[in-house]
């Protein structure tokens, strides 16, 4: 077989030269004829047809296997004929619900969205406050440290002025003060009174948060295919959206989720998670095959806890952060309420890859498959000359051995024939 | 054609054995010779050259088509010879502008960036407040619900203590109170007075926001190619940046955008959108061909509204969220100003794929194309034996039929020759 | 060589027909025999074996080169046999540390996490306040503009009521007031007193921020391979995490970073960067080869400044934004403290591609490589008929020229034989 890569160049040159020279061709007929022969003589392999069912079957069966692989695996399973694009998405979230807390530690309080959603914007990541340690009325002043091996002191000599322990709560003033009737600790300059975050409520303060609902609006784009879509599907109407709630079985396309349902689908218990906080992923999979009717491109929701719950090496388990509300007293002094907020951060993670038929991957994959077809004759030839019954006969007619040593250039085939 | 995959192994073995055995070769000359023949005899197909212009033209033309496809489509259009990488980007945004509001409902107020940009950090997503419902001086207390079919009551029997309607505004106390002179509703425990969000101004409060400008600073990286770039191009100088404003025609590389211009390029009316809010995507496309002079890698800006405006199933149209500013009165009571903020969230979405010549995709795609070249002789052979004028002649000389039945192993070619 | 793509169809048809017709085959034996011949006759190229060491060596060496390329470059270097997936990740950050400021301009103040981290949530992007311009006790009122060529006035005629200069600070009231004893400027309606942001401290206020530490918790997923991992590695225990600090040499897997270390690894000076602010990328590379023991999939940290430091065209250098804390005075008037915050925004950027053996890319790449193997005989044939010593002999036996003109259909080979 002749894979002349320079065929294109050759024939182009020929076409150009033909046009240019035109009738002048007859003059340089000899030269031209040679060129024509060079460019257009077709060299084809001589072949031997072997009417053997066995070899033929091996050949066809190997071909069949390759074609089955191409059709079955590459095309159907892997969709290797498609060009792919990655999703670009926008998410809006809106939480609804309120709660009332009335525990022994805190005064009765009503909570609405503006109180427990941080940040308020309703981005792809929102935090629902479920538990907290509140330290109200902090002012910039001095107070004794919380007792710990490194802060307990006997007299002022144990405290170094200006020293700041990274695990402490402020800058030491060099004095040793009474923390309680039993303990004396170094005095620090800090926001006082200090936060005592060991007194975290064992039952989540906003246990009612499990009944809050969240509406997730998600618009996606596959820019390469100019394909746009929302998770609120076209056939869904307003009245349905007012009362529906996501359920994998009955309402798989309702974009309103009950927080408790999200957490339990992720295999966690809401009340358990609410105490120390955590991060929960709401995964929206937009993987689509755009070759079929586009209406079939639907979001698939799944839920997974993203932080580790009870690993051996659990530093700072759960999810919490500190923030403060700043006030000014009548006399202009700044005071703040420090809140160590525990809660569940919901991360809406949108991912997906869309595929649509494209000629380049098709060609590449078909090309690769054709390469395997070109292996088929190798297999069949090997079978022919090694395993088939009449292998000597086939081999003798297929292959000619050139005997170089004899300068008379006789070929083995000829010789063989002669002796028969 | 012989596609011996084991050629490598064979020749390696041979080289090793040659080195090891060295002069000892002469001793085991016979064995060695057989090995040499096995490893280095070259088996080449016998070919027949057919001096037919027709067949030659079919062959060359088919070759030409395949080469044209490879050069034209795969290389030029699809750039299949490139390795690709996805963009990693950082965005900073800074809005400038101020406004003055003076409507009948609210007292005169001056607004600057710290007032209307939420969150203030200037991330890839920023929100410009354009309209709002303000409920000042809310305190934790009791007040009658807003009138609705489920909250209107005649006497206390209609209200259940502790009941909380998800569509209501608080937890019922079990009392029925006068909401107005005409309506009695159940009293709830909540932040009072309740927000009445139906009184949304019909004209956006901060209509002047359309003249605000935003400076977008965007740095991108293609980590695979170690390629870094900013959207503030090297040839742009400071004085230009101080006065320029993005315009597709006159200033396509100015990174300062007027909000009104962004919205109108997205096909929307700013004043219309400002009333109920919405989400607007500022898409920056960094798709680049890094094989050419890298300076040609420029950001392409486009603008698109990301939420749906007037669909049939429009729940919670526009974009809004609630947040509160917390205050403390002189006697320590917490009070808040609840703001239902309507406005436009601008999402800066950076995407792009860069391509640069790489040997692997080139090899893969050339390989696939070569496979198609190997189909060319199949086409030409088919034309040769079925369509060409002298097909019998060609076929007779190209193909030899082995007649197995005759055990004397005569071949048809031989026979043919004999009869001629 | 025969690359019959229709082999599959043919053989399928044949199998079906065989089943259907069964014993009826003997009836239509003649037709069937023809069909069998058509489907199962095996056509194989006739070959000539040339016992030439030179040609054989060229053939084997070319084969060797192709195989080396496939094994060495495609498989080992580029891992083209792998299917790839892009990382999905969640990040939590928690900064620790406090500072005490006592400069001539401001009163002494203690700073903790709730004061200097904005936003407080500890997302993948967090901002550490290092410097600021504070404008306390702003109220909605009137005050003279800051002096600049466009605001300086002589009398009221220079000021236009209602005019708002985009580079100014408010809406002009039309009056000309004394700004200082030497300058008169137009009065504006704004938050007064106006911010004077030229008085930025030359040494960063929170210089101590360089010793703050940040714990970065990062969970990643490769959805295609169902592979989950954290940057806190399984073999790391709690006590180690309490005292460790990231260091490329001694503690490369400790997820706690000292801010100064991050900045210096990015090639910057913390104190320098802290004055005007900037953006620093903490890049976590999760590129993994999942074919090997998964434990080897480790995060690689690197640090890079993402904004440009000293470019020629530096508009708004560094990183800053304005935010306000709102207070209410005892008589209900709203007042705010405006803070122009300078600082370092740390963006945790997680990227990576995982590869795992997959049959489709393997097949595609092997296919492409096989295509190159099919080029080997072309090279060897070219060497055979142009460069080898006995090229005439080889050429004569390999190639048969069909002499069409002689209608007697004698072939050149025959002729050649005859003359020998």
UniProtKB/TrEMBL annotation, chains A, B, C:
One record GO biological process: calcium ion transmembrane transport
Membrane topology designation: Multi-pass membrane protein
Disulfide bond annotation, renumbered to this chain: 143-192, 153-176, 159-186, 244-254, 288-297
InterPro entries: P2X2_purnocptor, P2X_extracellular_dom_sf, P2X_purnocptor, P2X_receptor, P2X_RECEPTOR_CS
Residues of this chain annotated as glycosylated in UniProt: 211
Protein keywords: ATP-binding, Cell membrane, Disulfide bond, Glycoprotein, Ion channel, Ion transport, Ligand-gated ion channel, Membrane, Nucleotide-binding, Receptor, Transmembrane, Transmembrane helix, Transport
Amino acids binding ATP: 94-96, 213, 320-322, 340
Subcellular compartments: Cell membrane; Membrane
Molecular function in Gene Ontology: ATP binding; extracellularly ATP-gated monoatomic cation channel activity; purinergic nucleotide receptor activity
Hydrolase recorded as keyword: no
Segments passing through the bilayer: 52-76, 370-388
Reactions the enzyme catalyzes: Ca(2+)(in) = Ca(2+)(out)
GO (cellular component) term, any one: postsynapse
NCBIfam families given in the database record: P2X (TIGR00863)
Record family assignment: Belongs to the P2X receptor family.
PANTHER family listed in its UniProt record: P2X PURINOCEPTOR, P2X PURINOCEPTOR 4
Function: ATP-gated nonselective transmembrane cation channel permeable to potassium, sodium and calcium. Activation by extracellular ATP induces a variety of cellular responses, such as excitatory postsynaptic responses in sensory neurons, neuromuscular junctions (NMJ) formation, hearing, perception of taste and peristalsis. In the inner ear, regulates sound transduction and auditory neurotransmission, outer hair cell electromotility, inner ear gap junctions, and K(+) recycling. Mediates synaptic transmission between neurons and from neurons to smooth muscle. Receptor for ATP that acts as a ligand-gated ion channel.
Subunit architecture: Homotrimer and heterotrimer; functional P2XRs are organized as homomeric and heteromeric trimers. Homotrimer. Forms heterotrimer with P2RX1. Forms heterotrimer with P2RX6. Forms heterotrimer with P2RX3.
Protein name: P2X purinoceptor
Organism: Oreochromis aureus (Israeli tilapia)
């Amino acid at each position: 077989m002749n894979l002349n890569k320079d065929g294109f160049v050759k024939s182009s040159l020929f076409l150009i030269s033909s046009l240019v020279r035109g009738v002048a061709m007859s003059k340089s007929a000899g030269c031209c004829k040679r060129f024509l022969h060079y460019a257009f003589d077709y060299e084809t392999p001589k072949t031997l047809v072997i009417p053997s069912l066995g070899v033929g079957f091996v050949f066809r069966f190997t071909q069949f296997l390759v074609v089955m692989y191409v059709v079955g695996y590459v095309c159907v399973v892997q969709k290797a004929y498609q060009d792919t694009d990655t999703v670009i998405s926008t998410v809006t979230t809106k939480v609804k619900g309120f709660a009332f807390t009335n525990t022994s530690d805190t005064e009765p309080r009503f909570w609405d969205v503006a109180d427990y959603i941080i940040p308020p914007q309703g981005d792809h990541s929102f935090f629902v406050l479920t538990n907290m340690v509140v330290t109200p009325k902090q002012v910039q002043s001095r107070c004794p440290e919380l007792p710990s091996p490194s802060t307990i002191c006997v007299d002022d000599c144990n405290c170094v002025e200006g020293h700041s322990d990274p695990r402490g709560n402020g800058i030491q003033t060099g004095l040793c003060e009474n923390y309680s009737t039993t303990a004396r600790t170094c005095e620090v300059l800090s926001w006082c009174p200090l936060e005592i975050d060991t007194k975290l409520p064992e039952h989540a303060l906003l246990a009612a948060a499990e009944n809050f609902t969240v509406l997730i609006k998600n618009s996606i784009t596959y820019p390469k295919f100019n394909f746009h879509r929302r998770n609120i599907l076209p056939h869904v109407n307003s009245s349905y959206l007012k009362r529906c709630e996501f359920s994998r079985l009955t309402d798989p396309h309702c974009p309103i989720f009950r927080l408790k349902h999200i957490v339990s689908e992720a295999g966690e218990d809401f009340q358990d998670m609410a105490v120390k906080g955590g991060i929960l992923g709401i995964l929206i999979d937009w993987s689509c095959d755009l070759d079929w009717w586009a209406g079939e491109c639907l979001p698939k929701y799944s839920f997974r806890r993203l932080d580790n719950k009870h690993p051996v090496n659990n530093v700072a388990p759960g999810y919490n952060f500190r923030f403060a509300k700043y006030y000014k007293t009548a006399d202009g002094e700044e005071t703040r309420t420090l809140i160590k907020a525990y809660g569940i951060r919901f991360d809406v993670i949108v991912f997906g890859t869309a595929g649509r038929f494209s000629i380049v991957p098709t060609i590449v994959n078909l090309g690769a498959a054709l390469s395997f077809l070109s292996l088929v004759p190798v297999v069949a030839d090997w079978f022919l000359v090694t395993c088939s019954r009449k292998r000597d006969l086939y081999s003798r007619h297929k292959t000619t051995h050139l005997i170089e040593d004899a300068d008379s250039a006789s070929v083995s085939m000829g010789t063989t024939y002669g002796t028969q």
